[in-house]
Fold this sequence. Notes:
The structure holds 2 protein chains of 2 kinds. By secondary structure, chain A is mainly β. Chain A has strands spanning about 5, 10-15, 20, 25, 30-40, 45-50, 55-60, 65-70, 75-80, 85-95, 100-105, 105-110. In chain A, strand 5 and strand 6 form a beta hairpin. Chain B has strands at about 5, 10-15, 20-25, 30-40, 40-50, 55, 65-70, 75-80, 85-95, 105, 110-115. The chains are: A mainly beta, B mainly beta.
Amino acid sequence: AQSVTQLDSQVPVFEEAPVELRCNYSSSVSVYLFWYVQYPNQGLQLLLKYLSGSTLVKGINGFEAEFNKSQTSFHLRKPSVHISDTAEYFCAVTGGGADGLTFGKGTHLIIQP
Amino acid sequence: DAGITQSPRHKVTETGTPVTLRCHQTENHRYMYWYRQDPGHGLRLIHYSYGVKDTDKGEVSDGYSVSRSKTEDFLLTLESATSSQTSVYFCAISESLGTSSSYEQYFGPGTRLTVT
């Protein structure tokens, strides 16, 4: 079984500043990791994923994340945020079976002008 | 959005009544999932399906049942709705394991269910 911890429920940041959203996971098997974004009153959209290979993965909208196996982390970063990045961000993990993703509780990114 | 629709999009029902939510996909993906989203809990898996008539329980399956008689449809039924089942329900789909898009899930727009 896997679990995901998103350490911050809310992250306020000023527009054009950098941001990091933290995600740690636990698993007894190899994992595949994802970040999803949810804009208000919408479904979830995939930002990026790590399946294998390079530990630095780039996604849509200028986001990137780094897989760190020794620290069991998959933190999401963006060098300069915009008002349009205001949303809920979810980290998720799977061990590769058919039984779906395990999600963190989400981090609300609040962009301040 | 991937070809996933959910119906109804909004529903208000009374405690004790049966409710069925429908998820329909046009992608011919093998795997389908039902999640519920509640503040402070993220998304939690209710049930999933790995093929027609093949389903299994997730983390929060009590009070819910599912059926999948066709590849494209996955139904979630609350046999007797309770106020604790007030939530936003999301359907998701995934391709077969072992493909380049393995494990990635595509989500529907959600159904907001209120049980009064």
